[in-house]
Write a structure and sequence with these properties.
2 strands, globular, two-stranded antiparallel ribbon, 4 helices, 150 residues
């Protein structure tokens, strides 16, 4: 890497201000480790500018892939979780027939419901609280031939 330690430190502090990274305990006094904090991701509307939209699509694609990885890790290790965590976990999928306005309604409701629990802004979580991955994806269904479902 061609960046100086002070430059990296400055950028990490900027990311920390937005809750995207946090300091972790160092093994010795010389190290200053950081880690990413899972906070969530909201793309809002996709941009009309092709360059911006390309970046949004790349980030969204990476996020969807990570969502799949986290889901598979959970399935692979489900037996290591207490029964209470197993029963509280959910994997649901729905085939909806809605208008754009109707689709926006549950998305907004879910966001309002989940937002108070977001790890980086929740101030007083119970001691037994653990990090949980939650996602909601809703978009028009596209068939294998690349055509939208009717």
């Amino acid at each position: 890497m061609d960046s100086t330690a002070s430059n990296c430190s400055w950028h990490l502090r900027q990311l920390a201000q937005w809750g995207l990274v946090e300091r972790v305990e160092a093994a010795d006094g010389r190290e200053r480790p950081w880690r990413a904090t899972p906070v969530g991701l909201d793309f809002g509307e996709f941009a009309t500018d092709p360059g911006v939209q390309t970046a949004q699509l790349a980030a969204a694609g990476a996020w969807i892939a990570e969502d799949g990885v986290l889901g598979q890790r959970f399935l692979d290790t489900i037996g290591s979780f207490d029964r209470e965590w197993q029963e509280a976990s959910a994997i649901n999928t729905y085939a909806l027939r809605v208008t754009p306005a109707e689709l926006a309604a549950p998305t907004e409701a879910i966001d309002a419901l989940v937002r108070p629990y977001v790890a980086t802004i929740r101030t007083e979580a119970p001691e037994e609280a653990r990090p949980v991955h939650a996602s909601w994806r809703a978009y028009p269904r596209v068939e294998a031939n690349g055509q939208p479902s009717e």
